[in-house]
Amino acid sequence: MQKQIQDVAAVQKQQQKQLQKAQGYDVVITYLTAPKRWWLYTLILLIVVVMLSWSGTTVKFKGMTSKGSEIAAGIWNGLVHPDMNLLINTTTEGVPYQLLQTVAIAVLGTLIGGILAIPFSFLACDKVVPKGIAFIFNVFILLIRTIPSLVWALVWIRVTGPNAFCGVVTQSICSIGMICKMYITAIEDIDTRILESLDASGCNGFQKVRYGILPQIIPNFISTVIYRFDINVKDATTLGIVGAGGIGAALIQCITSSRWSMVGSYLFGMIVLMIIIELFSTQVRKKLARG
């Protein structure tokens, strides 16, 4: 009996070796029969090298000016020694108010853009509407994304004047372009087999949307809006430089007048704010990913 067991074990071991050997032959055969595309990779590498060389001819570094080094040193000193009175100041000139205004601009701009992007996304998806209509709305979304946020801000400043409302309008329009792109991808990735099952079960149109489409796209929609909110908080600071509200206007005034301790206070507040937002958004995305 023991000899039979040993014989069976030996046979199994031999079969395992033969299987490993066959698998090794398969790998070698696959490698040898694979198409040789070294010329394509070489061509791509040459194109990248040529593009880098051509780009380098238009960008020339002439060193840092004495004033530039002074500004860098002043900003560093401001971060190390911020104006504590400005950090705890609750007036409209204080850091808390400026940060809250920046966050308010980003929240309103993101929500308005995220809501307006929903109908545009469905109208731009050729799985939902005819290809002609989808093409028209895709061109419209592309036009929105083509124009930078600073240009949109400069345009709307002429309409609304330099205030926080201009920042909200600008971020709403800019958010539509990016969010629509992400929404369309989520809509195109819908599993249509679920809709077919609901249709076979006798569900009406509303029930198919409620139980077949929304559960698939809502997590992606929320994750996209949160990601855009992170971007809008940073953009709100930049838009403030051109007069669209937020902490950017106060920051650029302090930099221009070389009030480095105040600059350090505003930068310190922005750093703390971004850390808090990043921690919050990361936790929300994890929960969405886990369902």
Structural class: mainly alpha
Strand coverage percent: under 5%
Distance between the termini: 55 Å
List SSEs in N-to-C order: HHHHHHHHHHHH
Q: Write down how many β-strands occur, each being a DSSP E stretch of 2 or more residues.
A: 0
Q: What is the helical fraction, as a range of percent?
A: over 70%
| Rg measurement, Å | 29 Å
Level-2 CATH architecture of the domain at 83-190 and 216-290:
Orthogonal Bundle
Major beta sheet summary: none
Name of the CATH homologous superfamily of the domain at 83-190 and 216-290: MetI-like
| The CATH topology of the domain at 83-190 and 216-290 | MetI-like fold
- Number of continuous helical runs: 12
The overall pLDDT, averaged over residues, is: 79
Uncertain segments: none
The dominant shape is extended
What is the CATH domain class of the domain at 83-190 and 216-290?
Answer: Mainly Alpha
What does this molecule look like?
- With 291 residues, the protein is mainly α.
- It has a domain at 83-190 and 216-290: Orthogonal Bundle (MetI-like fold), CATH 1.10.3720.10.
- 83% of the residues lie in helices and 0% in strands.
- The chain has 12 helices and no strands.
- The chain starts with a helix and ends with a helix.
